[in-house]
Amino acid sequence: MKRARSNVLDEQDEKVVQLFTDLGMPKNLAKTLIYISQVDECRSADVEQGANLRQPEVSVAMQELRKRGWVAKRDLKKKGKGRPVHIYKLTTPLPKILEEFEKEKLREVETIKQDLSQLRELLGRYTK
Hints:
The chain is an alpha+beta fold.
């Protein structure tokens, strides 16, 4: 991640994002994950700017990351009125995330293999 006015994803980060995407992870989720993995804590606005995403894209990605238990959210109260600012932090190291992602993908491959095997067996009945 290169430092400009704020942190932004660099070429190597984009390569990692592309690999996650090629393996089936939504691009916005991958960009958000890679961004947040390189900072201690951040706001949604930081991710929007650094990962070049729109607010709704970051919001959906953060929900998924939190659902998977990879990211935690805390609220930072503003002085006066207004909504608190959400602060996000990665709670699972990237190697562990990759391990979980790999297991998920291998389960998908096994399901595909089983479905293909079953299809092959069923299609045997349709011989001419």
